[in-house]
């Protein structure tokens, strides 16, 4: 079970949510990793983490970032995280379409007992989803491309590279090329052990390498596309390819 991050600007509300969540997490192997009123602290925390989280985000944070904007940023660092919005205004939930944020649920503030039930439902849903994922084929990667979710077999993928835009990744496959929001760090955690980071901008499927030019530091893939390898990674790449 993923650990939990709370971002709520109202201290009294935040303490109540912490108490509810702490009671529920006793059923699962997880804890509250961060509870704050500062959305920038959330981004800093997950940027320095290798893990995926469950996020409970207040919509109105009285900051330069609202909950939807924070969620949009979270998706670039933690594309597989679960986001639950907390709001006093149910009508605001429609704004998730404007910000292109996928949310697990929306919890309307008010009746504390209703909030307890909703939080319990959300955590149970995450628990069930994670358990179901473990039983599925581990050789697939899902990526959000616009409004579509694309599922790729690892064997179809040649390499990933940074796309020249902030937090954009390009994945090269035998069938085509797709761009999506993400980071190489998060992708490296999601793919199989056949993938190797050859450069700060490249993550390569070593089973699809045709040749490596050590003098030019170039990796040629089986479809003749070219990647690059940096000096610090060349030794590890050669060793990886011999396994």
Automatic annotation (TrEMBL):
Q: Which PROSITE patterns match?
A: HTH_LYTTR (PS50930), RESPONSE_REGULATORY (PS50110)
Which positions fall inside the HTH LytTR-type domain? 141-243
- What sequence ranges are listed for the domain Response regulatory? 3-124
Alphabetized Gene3D superfamilies for the sequence:
3.40.50.2300, LytTr DNA-binding domain (2.40.50.1020)
Alphabetical keyword list: Activator, Cytoplasm, Phosphoprotein, Two-component regulatory system
Under the heading InterPro entries, the entry gives:
CheY-like_superfamily (IPR011006), LytR-like (IPR046947), LytTR_DNA-bd_dom (IPR007492), Sig_transdc_resp-reg_receiver (IPR001789)
4-aspartylphosphate sites (modified residues): 58
Q: Which domain of life is it from?
A: Bacteria
Return any one Pfam family short name.
LytTR
Q: What PANTHER family does this protein map onto?
A: STAGE 0 SPORULATION PROTEIN A HOMOLOG, TRANSCRIPTIONAL REGULATOR-RELATED
Q: What does this protein do?
A: May play the central regulatory role in sporulation. It may be an element of the effector pathway responsible for the activation of sporulation genes in response to nutritional stress. Spo0A may act in concert with spo0H (a sigma factor) to control the expression of some genes that are critical to the sporulation process.
Could you tell me what this protein is called?
Stage 0 sporulation protein A homolog
The gene coding this protein = agrA
């Amino acid at each position: 079970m993923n650990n939990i991050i709370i971002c709520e600007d109202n201290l009294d509300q935040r303490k109540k949510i912490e108490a509810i969540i702490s009671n529920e997490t006793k059923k699962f192997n997880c804890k509250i990793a961060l509870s704050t009123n500062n959305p920038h602290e959330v981004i800093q925390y997950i940027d320095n983490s290798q893990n995926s989280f469950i996020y409970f985000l207040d919509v109105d944070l009285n900051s330069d970032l609202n909950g939807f904007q924070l969620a949009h940023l979270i998706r670039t660092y933690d594309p597989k995280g679960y986001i639950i919005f907390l709001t006093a205004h149910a009508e605001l939930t429609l704004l998730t379409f404007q910000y292109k944020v996928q949310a697990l649920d929306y919890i309307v503030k008010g009746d504390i007992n209703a909030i307890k039930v909703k939080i319990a439902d959300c955590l149970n849903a995450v628990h069930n989803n994670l358990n179901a994922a473990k039983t599925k084929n581990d050789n697939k990667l899902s990526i959000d491309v616009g409004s579509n979710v694309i599922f790729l077999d690892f064997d179809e993928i040649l390499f990933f590279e940074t796309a020249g835009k902030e937090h954009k990744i390009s994945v090269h496959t035998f069938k085509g090329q797709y761009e999506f929001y993400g980071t190489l760090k998060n992708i490296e955690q999601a793919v199989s052990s056949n993938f190797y980071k050859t450069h700060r901008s490249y993550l390569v499927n070593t089973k699809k390498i045709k040749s490596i030019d050590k003098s030019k530091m170039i990796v040629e893939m089986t479809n003749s596309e070219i990647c690059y390898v940096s000096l610090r990674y060349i030794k590890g790449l050669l060793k990886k390819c011999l396994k």
